Amino acid sequence: MGSGSSKDLHSRLLQSITEHAQDVNCLAVSEDLSVLVTGSEDCTARMWSIRPAETACLGIMKGHTKYITCITITETFVVTGSSDKTIRKWDMTTCECVYVYRGHTSRIYRLICTGEFIFSTSNDKTAKAWLLDESDLVEDSDECDKMEIAEEMCIRTFRGHTLAVYPIIYVPAADDWGKDEITINPLDVIITGSADSTAKIWSFEEGTCLRTLTGHLAGIMCMVTDASATTLYTGSADKTIRSWNIQRGECLK
């Protein structure tokens, strides 16, 4: 590396955001690339405008009682998971919490959101699927028992891993793509990776395990599929990456 390379690298830093009081654990960017949301050990999430040259804080999301572990953005909502065992949905226009999802019994690790569903994984050895919008459950929530609604927001619990569940992927059936209505196709699947060294493929409709992928010698920390969602790639603490045929559940290489 030449003598001027270090200076060139440092010159690319545009701005440092230092408002969080403790470590920043996670972040997400809105689909239009105008908003950044950060989650911290200080139990808050902060929303930033990143379109202008100078980044500006748009609001602070306060409510979690322990550190924030994961964040996702869907439409006009921010969804956060925390070590306090809860998931919170925030209105991006006000930074106010509009719903708290309770059901996990240990820290939340990962979140993904489809626009209709939230999927979460936890140290409690489970993954869960939730309705994003409580109004999809009842026509008039003001007339219903709030506790009853909260219990019914979790529509699936995926049990079978023997240790903490980390990454999660939602693979909708091909004919689900582009649909606006909330529906669960019998061919929709969920894939989870765990500290127990396995990945599991689940039926979203039934909540049952279809296949268990074994071969890694340590926890599976990350996963991704190819564009056609036919091949799964898993990264593990055993220092290897494996590819799998999702339909057959066999290791390819």
TrEMBL record:
UniProt keyword Membrane, yes or no: no
Organism: Hyalella azteca (Amphipod)
Official protein name in the record: WD repeat-containing protein 86-like
Transmembrane parts of this sequence: none
UniProt keyword list: Repeat, WD repeat
Pfam families: WD40
WD repeats: 17-58, 61-100, 190-212, 213-253
Coiled coil regions, renumbered to chain: none
